[in-house]
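Dear support,

I submitted the protein below through the web form. The confirmation email said the job was done, but the results page showed an empty box. After a refresh the structure appeared. I'm attaching both so you can tell me whether what I see now is the final result or a partial one.
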Amino acid sequence: MAQLFSLQRSKSAHVTLGYFTLGKPLAALFQIAAIIVITIGAHRFWRQQMNMSRGKVWAGGWEIYVIMVTMLLVCSEHTVRCRRGTD
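What the results page shows now:
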């Protein structure tokens, strides 16, 4: 993402909100979000394996709800921006 935003640098770019300026912080934010999702998934995998060794299956849990709510917030924000025409 940072590389793509660096390619769009122009002479008349916005100093504080341009693609080139926000590329690295946005890329770092996405990397942090990916690490959090992977950590939650690893925790869920570990818990599922422990329950399967006991002969049980863990169908729900807070991990699913956290990822679901996060994705809903991201999608709803994107939908609102698209309807306003600011995307």
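Response: this is the final, complete result; the empty box was a page-load delay. The radius of gyration is 19 Å.
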